[in-house]
Write a structure and sequence with these properties.
The protein is of the alpha/beta class. The protein contains 20 helices and 8 strands. The protein has 3 domains: 6-138, Fumarate Reductase Iron-sulfur Protein, Chain B, domain 2 (Orthogonal Bundle); 142-298, Rossmann fold (3-Layer(aba) Sandwich); 304-425, Rossmann fold, CATH 3.40.50. The strands form 2 sheets. The protein has a 4-stranded parallel β-sheet. It has a 4-stranded parallel β-sheet with strand order 6-5-7-8, sandwiched between helices. It is globular and about 75 Å long. The structure holds iron/sulfur cluster (2 copies).
Amino acid sequence: MPVLSKEEIEKFYEFCKKSINTEVASYLEACVRCGICAEACLFYMGVNVSGRIDPSLTPAYKADLLREIYKENYTLFGKLKKLLGFGVRISPEDLREQVKLVFYTCTNCDRCTKACPMGIDTPKLVSIVRGALTHAGLTPKDLANATNLSIEKGSPLGVDIPTFLQRLEFISEEYEVEVPINKKPSDYLYLPSSIELMKFPSSVAAAVKVLNRTGINWTMSTVAHEATNFGLFAQSKEVTREMLRRVLEGAKELGVSYIITPECGHAYQSMRFIAPNIFPKDWTFEVLNIVEFIDRMIDKGRISIKRKVLKERTTLHDSCQIGRRGGVLRESRRILKMLAEDFQDSVLIPEHNICCGGGGGVLVIGEADQYRQKAFISKMTLFDKVEAKTVVCYCANCMLALTKGNQELGRDYRFVSIVELVAEAMEGEE
Ligand code: SF4
Ligand code: SF4
């Protein structure tokens, strides 16, 4: 991290101060230091099982500096302390620690919120600190680069429109699927993520096969061609807004009523929950994740799938942003119970599933690798518990993070996309 000036520290402080509204103040006041959230966090658990207790990885601790800033500005005791010369002092080391706490060791998975008896939304507090660090120019380099590429080229992987079209042409030829592009008018817009386009083209081909089979009037767009939104990871309001504005422009131009988001957790979050708040008048679309869409199409009889095609013991990895935070937990289970002969859920309550360790932008941050690898240990315990080697996923970023963890720790799980499984199992598919 570069040498920090007084101005950067000041920017961090002011951003935090301005972000404290009644909701945030209630979270900061309500923490009773019970520590229950620690055992909910995959980073805390992962470091502990690897032999070293690190109390700084407790979710509640991530909000401590923000809490100090809150007290100093909004409580009598804090104000008095400041008057007496004992105000909050922030050193460059403090900000370095904040980068570790909110960018390297938090995926915004929300598991701690579900565990907290006071209902404290730690991801919300983490997001404020991320935003303050970004405002002060302290976004981790890898994440900042990917975020800038999103704005400049249209995608964090640098997939611009010519590359997008080339990849679709490749998918069309390689997998023998017809891909409608800019078809007007259409009812449904499907957006892939650049992770899928570049690293998992078979997943995009599978989604195309399923969409074509349903008989709906759908298309892809060269204006709205990227589902990911790195503005959320860096907590840059400008980037978040701009990426969503492009989707809005593309969707409006095509006159669609529905947007189908791909196997990508935060794409669903951004379009389903954030966009309607940024564009309350214009965002008139119904947003469906591809898993929700498939479940609906099976229910309506528009696609039918062969039963029990997956013979081996299988479990499910939930995307935190689509599942726990997005509420899409039953759909994937319904589909998997049809597809798998021996499906074993690794958690009793679906909301309790553990994150892959790479969400929230953690996967792209090189400095976070050591923490992500330990967090993967927490995840593995669930796969091992049900003795499953085949793990079905519905987020490409999760697939990437799990595959990386698998290789790094020398394990032999097989990760498969639920959409690919559905495409293969559709009646009439060879
Ligand atoms: S949101 Fe997830 S990763 Fe972040 S502190 Fe909470 S449990 Fe840990
Ligand atoms: S579980 Fe909730 S109240 Fe307890 S320490 Fe964590 S954030 Fe605070």
